[in-house]
Amino acid sequence: MTASTTTASTLAFRFAVIFVVAGMLMGIAMAASHDTSVMPAHAHLNLLGWVSLFLFGIYYERRPALDTSGLARVQVLIWALATTVLTVAVAGVHLGHDAADPVAAVTSLVVLSDMLLFGYLVYRGGPARENKGFAPAE
């Protein structure tokens, strides 16, 4: 599968794995240094990067028409980029860098806007993929 034909779910799952590994490394670094000053950034990284992207991936995978949609792929890419910038900005804020405040504020609005885009895609919808291989118990 080429980059132009990669589904939204595949992109979301791939980014989710990158973010969870980064989050784990960040947590290990905080534990090893006994410095938890960037804990809020760690939380943003795990929730927005790992959890949200994984949930997006599940949703998109269950809706084939959306999964191959260019708009869904854009939504995932914006989310991954904004999560990266927001995590760095939140860390900067908690490390005392005043210049990171407006970056965090603007990027928070980008993340919100991207969630609204995801909401639009959810409400626009499309049929769910059939659940094959599981028969209901009788």
- Mean of the pLDDT scores? 91
Largest sheet: number of strands, sense, barrel closure: none
What are the secondary-structure elements, in order, as H or E?
A: HHHHH
How many alpha or pi helices? 5
Q: Roughly what percent helix?
A: over 70%
Span of the ends, CA to CA: 40 Å
Structural class comes to mainly alpha
Integer-rounded radius of gyration: 17 Å
The poorly predicted ranges are: none
Instruction: List how many beta strands DSSP finds.
Output: 0
Proportion in β-strands = under 5%
- What overall form do the CA principal axes indicate? elongated
Write a brief structural summary:
The protein is mainly α. The chain is built from 5 helices and no strands. It is 75% helix and 0% strand.
Describe this structure in words.
- The chain has 138 residues and is mainly alpha-helical.
- 75% of the residues lie in helices and 0% in strands.
- It is built from five helices and no strands.
- Helix 1 packs antiparallel against helix 2.
- The termini are far apart.
- The model has no long low-confidence stretch (mean pLDDT 91).
Which terms summarize this structure?
about 140 residues, mainly alpha, 5 helices, about 0% strand
Helix and strand layout, with pairings?
Layout: H1 8-33, H2 39-62, H3 64-67, H4 70-94, H5 100-124
Helix pairs in contact: 1-2, 1-4, 2-4, 4-5
